[in-house]
Structure formats: C-alpha cells, structure tokens
Amino acid sequence: MRCAIAALFLTGLLFSCSKNDASPCTVTENHDGTSTFHCGGKDFTLPGGGSKADCTYLEAPDGSFTITCENGITAHFDPQGRPIFPGKGAITGSALLYGMQEHEGILVRLVGTDASVTTDVGGTWIFAGVPAGTYTLTFEAPGRVPEERRNVTVVNGVFRMDPVVLKHGKKIGPSFPMREVGESPTSETLYDLEDSFALIPHRLRIWDVSKRQPTDLSATALFPSYSDDGRLLVFLEDRSSLGRVTIWDVEARRSDVVFSGATGAQFMPGSHSVLIRTEDSLFVWAEGGELLSLGAWKSRFVDWDRWPPEQPGLVLPSPDGGIVAFQRPSGALVVWTEATRSAEVVGGADGDLLSAQWSPDGAYLSFTTLDQAVRQTVSLWDRSAGSTKVLATSDSFMGPFGLLFAPDSSSAAFRTFVGESALSLWRRSTGDVVRVLQGDAEWFEFMEGGSSLLVQETFRAALSVYRVGTGAREPLGSMFFGVHPSPDGGSVVVELGDGLEVIRLSDLSKTTLNGMNPQWGSDGKWLGFLQPAETNGPFLKAFEISTGRELRVAGNITSFSVHEAGLFFLAVKDGQKPDRFCIADYMRNLTPCPGRVGSGTPLSALSAPSVSGKNVFFLGCGDDGVCGRLKKVDLVHGDFDAIPIDHDVSDFRLYNGFLTYTIFSESDESDGVYLVTAVE
C-alpha cells in the first residue's frame, strides 16, 4: 500500500512524501491539527498538514527511522520518534513592495550569518545549502518599513515562506485616542502624545524617525516641546500631583526631573534654559542646572471680551530668549534679564494690562493698558534705553488696538480713537508718531520688507499704499471685492466686478486680467487664476509679474491650488468619473494626471496635495469613485505613475522630514496612525 501524506511541519520543519513500494507509511490527520505517521509499527505524531504526496521509510539497526518523500526531502527520527535535523536545507519565498508592479532589489538577510540575497523583479529570493537550524530573516528596502520573520526552521528540503509585503507606513498607535505628533527642528525625532486635547496626562513617546523606533518617556505627560536645536524635549509629568518638569536628552537618551510643582514649562528661544510656571511664581532652569527665581506673577486675569473670561497671565520671552516680560500680582509689568539675573519694572504700565508683544528683533516691547476712566493707552518700552514712550491714548474704550510691527522692526502701525478712528505709524528712525489715515482702517499690512504699508478703509473700501520713508499715501482704487497681497510684499492683486487687476507697488503699474479666484505662487513672482469660458472651461491661467506674460495651463478645471514655485494642482472634470488629479508646471505647460480626486472636492481641503522636496502626496480615488487612497508622485524623475502608500486613509499631514496618515477601521490590524519617513 502506498501512503499519501501532507506537507507536515514540526516547529517549522517541512515534510512531504515520495513513492516507494518497499515499506510505505500511512498517515492519519487528527482533529487537533496534528498528523500521525504509521511506519513499521511505530507512530510519529507531528503538527501540521498540507498537500499530499507519497513517502516510504527505512529503519536502521539502531532503531532510528528515515522517511523519504517523492520530492527528495528526507526526515530522520531517533528510536523514540523524535525528529533529527539533517545536514542542510533551503529557504525561499517572495518579498513584495506594496503598490509596485516590480519588486527587484529587496535585501533579505539571514540573521546570525553573513548570508544575504536580493529579490528579482518578481520578488523571489532563495537561500540554498543552509545548515539545519532555526533562523531569523529580515527584509529591507529604501523608504519601506523593514519586516522580520523569526523561528524559520530549516530541514533537508525547501522551506517555503508566506509572501512578505514591505509597506511605507509604520503604525505609531491606534487612531483613538487622538494623538498629537510634534516634529523636532532637525526632523530626526518626533514625539507622540495620546489624547492631549482633553488636557489629561497621557502616554508620551519619542521616535527615532530613521529607525522608526519609539522610546517610552511617560504615562502621565502634558505639553511636550522641543528646544530650538532639537536636542532636548521638555514636558510636564503627573500634573495631578504637582507636575514634574522633565527634560529628555535626545542624544544621551536620558531624562532628568528638574522641578516639581509646576503648571507649565517651555524652552526659552534659542537656548536650553527652561521657563517654569507655578500657580504663583516663575522660575528659569538655566542650562548649567541652576534654578533661578523670577518671583511672583499674576497667573490669571479677567477679560470679559473673551470666553472663558478668566485668561492665563502674561509670560512673554523675547525673541532671543534673553528677557522675560510678565506681570506681578500687583499688576506691574516687569522685565527679567537672564544675563544679569535681575528684574525691573516697566514704567508707564499703569492700569490693567490688555496685551503685549515684542518687536521681531526683540528691541522693543509694546503694551496696551486700560485705566479707570476706560481709556486705552499703547506704549513702547525701549530695551536698550530702558525707557517707555507713550504712542497714543484713546478717549474711550475703543482703540488703540491692532499694533503691527514691520518685519524689519523699523516701524509699527496701530489704530487709535480720539474723537474718531485713525491709523497711526511709529517710525523708529525718528521716534515720532505720524497719522496715516483719518478714518477707520479695515485692515493694514506691511509690504516691500516694511518700506510701505497697504491700507484698506472700512467704509469707502478704498485701497492705498503709504510710503513709510516719505510719508506719502498713494491711492490704488476702491470698491474691490477682494484684496490679495503677494507673499514677497511686492505686488497686490484685487478682484474687480468683472476681472482682476495686478498692481506692482514699486511703480504702481497695473495689469488687468480676465479672470477670478486668484492664488499667488509661494515666491510672489507669479499667480494662477481661472478664466471663464463657454466651452471646455473654466481655464486655468498663469500670470508672471516680471514679464507680464499670460500662459494657459489647462481647461475644464473644477478647482486648483498652488504649491511651490511653478506648480499647480488641478481637479479636472472627466465626465461621470471622479475628477482627474493633475500636476501642472506652467513654465512648460505640462499636465500629467497621476490619479483622481473626489468630484467637487476642493484641493484646499485638509487632504490637499502636499509637496516635500519634489515628491507630491495626495488622497486619490479610483474610477469606481472609492477614495481614501494615499499616493506619492516622484517629480524629480518625471515618474507620474502614482505610487500607492496605503488605502482607506481619512487624512494625512506632511511635516518637514516625515508624513503621518490616519486610518479609521474596525479592524485593529488596519486602524491607526502611521509614520512614513521616505518623503524626500
């Protein structure tokens, strides 16, 4: 009688049978998933089962057995029926790159040996002549999450592994509770904090982005933040029992508790010193480990124009981190200097302090107070001179408000109300205050690096530009439906009733465009807009400021967004199918369309396309209308065939050095927030 036996596994051992008329074996498959060999009056019960093949046995003089199967595999057993590893075997299988058609180049390592192989185009790999034993295999490919398979046992034959799929995303946790992810300034690490929105302490981890490996820091953490150089992470721990201020050293991989009893902590700008708040006092933990007391502070104040009315007290480090401005419980405004370890009271800060802000260069501190007569006063404290200058006082609770420093700190604009509204300007060069506009300014913005001020009046909707150096105010027009200053501050585009008008502020030259929905390029040198058309419209067009050229990019546009210099992202109508997602470079008029997006979905939504280096990430759809497919397009190599990252994605966020995306699923295996590091 011939036997038919499955491919049987004992801790990963592979057995299958071959034809032999001399001494055949029979097999019984048991209910518990094991199989029993019946050979020469002896039984061998082994785990596993599979496809059937013929096997025979031979019994040695010492009572051991050798079972030989038709595919050449041989298994040895001692007289007690225990398997004996033969000399050598092989391991083979396939490794696949998720979302790709070709899978060549995946590195497969046999841990504990020098052996390694790479996959062929179909993903196949094999290790031959492997000594019998139990092994661990690793699978790696650039930009993919490495995989590992343990307890792979080799016998005299071929062990065929299940396919291994390398994906882009490493799960960093479930989608709920909600997670806060923060990137270090160097992009080398990130922190992952659970459920921070409820201000309830939760688990905090820090991840090595390149290795995709987390380190647990705390189970009761709040308010994590990095130092400016990314070398340290500070967080509040166990707030319910008077919080501990803990600092994690990223390089040394150690934590130190530097203070207990805090309600908050943050790094000073540009340093490793930590500003620590308690309910009634302020401290600075200096870089050398010295704890400095700033004294008592006013930790709460009431502002009935806000909700809730009780607001946190003012604590305002200077941009260079050398000074901290705050209020004493008496209401006095104080500036503390770390270099001198001393505090001084700012003169002129009488009454209730409403707001305060530093100039961009940290040379001035502006503040607004409210006195008992309900009059507001805006003042300026000169850091170098240690003196205070009153800029304006209103004759009612209305204004002054909305002080805005120029980017170069050369001036500051603010509204006032003395009998009527006005817009005034403080000039650093002369120290004087001049009237820019007699009337109510709806909004104002510094342009051309701070040398001019763009102003729109509230009632007449008149637009003008004020030259800070000369004091001249030049009208630009009125009754606009929208005003859009350029990112570089050199131009402004206004929406007319029947088109657009682009104004260059340097010479006030104007260009009229037949279009709507303008969007500036990131460098302010060009803009995109839609031009209505009866057929195949609207058209997307680009306008170059320097040359005055209009370029037609594409037609049938549903929506568009502008990213990076020269790139458009388009949603293009395609009959009854989901809109095509296209990428257009207006300089070459290229419109590759690597995917689809939901019809009518604005590309300015949360899941809008994002650019990292020259890769574009977007949430796409299939021809069937099913969306939630996160994809990547490689613009550097002109590869406009989108690479799938994952599916069932609800949203994603692109950081400087990595990307995270979220999948909401009832399946614990799929649900979660994922980390992708290959974004450049």
UniProtKB/TrEMBL annotation:
Which PROSITE patterns is this protein grouped with?
A: PROKAR_LIPOPROTEIN
Coiled-coil-forming residues are: none
- The source's superkingdom equals Bacteria
Keyword hit for Lipid metabolism: no
Query: Per its UniProt record, what InterPro entries does this chain match?
Result: 6-blade_b-propeller_TolB-like (IPR011042), Carb-bd-like_fold (IPR013784)
Signal peptide annotation: 1-22
The molecular function terms of the Gene Ontology recorded here are: carbohydrate binding
Key word NADP present:
no
Q: What is this protein called?
A: WD-repeat protein
Please give the organism.
Vulgatibacter incomptus
